[in-house]
Amino acid sequence: MADRIRIVNACKNFGKVVALKNASLTVKPGEVVLVIGPSGSGKSTMLRCINRLEHLTSGEIWVDDDMVTDHASDIRKIREEVGMVFQSFNLFPHLSALENITLAPRVVKKMPDGEAKELGRKLLARVGLSEKEAVYPEQLSGGQQQRVAIARALAMNPKVMLFDEPTSALDPEMIKEVLDVMVELAKEGMTMLVVSHEMGFARAAAHAVVFMDNGEIIERGHPDEIFDHAKEERTQRFLKHIL
Amino acid sequence: MAEIDTGRKAGASSEAPASPRRELRNGRAARIEVSDGALIPGRGEKATFSAWRISFFGALAVLVYLFIARPTPYRDIMLFLPDGILKTFEVTLMSIACALVVGLIAGLGRISRIMILNRIATIYVEIIRGIPLLVQIFYIYYAMGKIIQVPDIFAAVIAMTICYGAYLGEIFRAGIQSIHKGQMEAAIALGLTRGQALRRIILPQTVRVVLPPLGNEFIALLKDSSLVSILAVSDLLRRGREYASKTFDYFEAFTVVALVYLVMTLFFSRLVALMEERMNRRGR
Are B237 and B230 in contact (CB under 8 A)? Predict the structure, then answer.
């Protein structure tokens, strides 16, 4: 089957700092891939290049048949199909939970108000927050905010979901509610690329784990294989630190 | 930014972009921030609030006392001035309305990624920063006189607009830049254009941040509007001078003019403080 995401020899420099070094990665439709690695290893940068929040220095990124790195391609069309969830949620503070979700369908897809609201309510129910539709982000807990943020991304009906450390800013007791939503999403067949160190999520839902270090992809394998029998020494050393 | 905040409520000014006027005039970030507007009392600050009360009601009491106890010349002066007060408000309101439009455009220009717009906006701010308002008013008045003849009040409003547009532009720029960049990223990641994101996401949040400093600028403009009295605009100050030149009661006339300005600026500074408090209470 064709790859949903294909990253080929991606290089990214920030001035003199090398963030990505010849990183190549493919994600098939329906696949859930977890990216782990020390901070500064280029995980988030790689993710942010997929919807061109950052520009690659060299290399190619494809989402289905669209080349993200080609400046002639319609990046907004691609962004509609690539949902993104941020570490810091980035909900719009001046909009209610429901309005956060309906904004993009209304503005970008010109969806009628009623239809957008119906969609928004359905998505809020899906992340278990039906009763919070009129509530503003600051009145929600971190876990609830992140669930609204996931619903907001899903509202554009994306083919891929990118998660950039979705639970890193959360208190421990709120991590599970977010991971539950993500596991559910994975079971429904969503293609997901997740930067996170949540081993529980990896074992429950991921098809593959990728280890990155210093901007390079060191190895890729089944979660059990990576966590229990990593081949590379750097991977083993990193896992010893976080387990 | 400010290490010593002598001007405004600490809570509000730490979030809101500081009044850029000092910054503009000094050409760098202010270390000691002294607000150009009147002291804005918050209810939380007992000392400032009571200082406000003493000045405000004190000024009112003195005016009332003079009106009743010393009818000549004070009653005559006070009856002579209201036209000027109206004119002062007229100039102030027209100028602030026009300056808001110019300021928003200048502010957007200053953050624009289109180089030419960015340059033009920055040069505009640089030039305005370097020329005293009084000189600008003279210059624009006589420069326009060479091209078209406009009523004096419009010349005054245009001069104030050009000057304050630069100050307000810096407030808008600081306000827009104070919005976390994750907001823009989240919006464009959803497929919005930068323009849509600016209008739907960034600007609505900016309004909340810039309202208090805009209130300050309004008060500063109210005071600076006295400069237009050098053109043939019969504002409050000019009416005072007109009265004095007839009767030679210079001291008495300017006493009343000063007290009236004081009452007006203190009144508006309280309004701005209340607005700020209400916004803080609503949070978000």
Answer: no
Please tell me which of the candidates A79, A107, A153 has its beta carbon nearest to residue B196.
Answer: A107
| 3-state percent helix, strand, coil for chain B, nearest multiple of 5 | 80, 0, 20
Q: Give the pTM.
A: 0.80
Complex ipTM above 0.85? yes
- How distant is the Cα of A140 from the closest Cα of chain B, in angstroms? 12
What is the average pLDDT value for chain B, to the nearest integer? Answer: 83
At residue A161, does pLDDT exceed 60? Answer: yes
B191: nearest CB among A76, A90, A93: A76
CA dihedral sign of residues B26, B217, B202, B199: negative
Mind listing the pLDDT tens digit for each residue in A78-109? Answer: 999 999 999 999 999 999 999 999 999 999 99
**Token pair 């960049």: residue:** B181
C-beta atoms of A82 and B189 within 8 A:
yes
The strand pairing partners of B71, in sequence order, are none
Interface of A with B in 156-215 (CB under 8 A): 156
Total number of residues shown for chain B: 284
Supply A211's token pair.
């280890």
What is d(CA B171, CA B156) in angstroms, rounded to the nearest whole number? Answer: 22
Taking only residues 97 to 126 of chain A, the set having a beta carbon closer than 8 angstroms to any beta carbon of chain B reads 103-104, 107-108
What Cα–Cα distance (Å) separates residue B274 from each residue in A167, A194, B18, B220, B277? 39, 46, 18, 18, 5
B42/B12 Cα distance (integer angstroms): 10
Angle at B176 between CA B174 and CA B181, to 5 degrees: 115
Three-state secondary structure of chain A: CCCCEEEEEEEEEECCEEEEEEEEEEECCCCEEEEECCCCCCHHHHHHHHCCCCCCCEEEEEECCEECCCCCCCHHHHHHHEEEECCCCCCCCCCCHHHHHHHHHHHCCCCCHHHHHHHHHHHHHHCCCHHHCCCCHHHCCHHHHHHHHHHHHHCCCCCEEEEECCCCCCCHHHHHHHHHHHHHHHHCCCEEEEECCCHHHHHHHCCEEEEEECCEEEEEECHHHHHHHCCCHHHHHHHHHHC
CB-facing half-sphere around the CA of B223: CA atoms within 13 A: 17
Closest residue of chain A to B193, computed from CA coordinates: A76
- pLDDT at residue B46, rounded to an integer: 66
Residue B208 with chain A: CB contacts under 8 Å: 94
- Using an 8 Å Cβ cutoff, are B19 and B9 in contact? no
A153 near A85, Cβ under 8 Å? yes
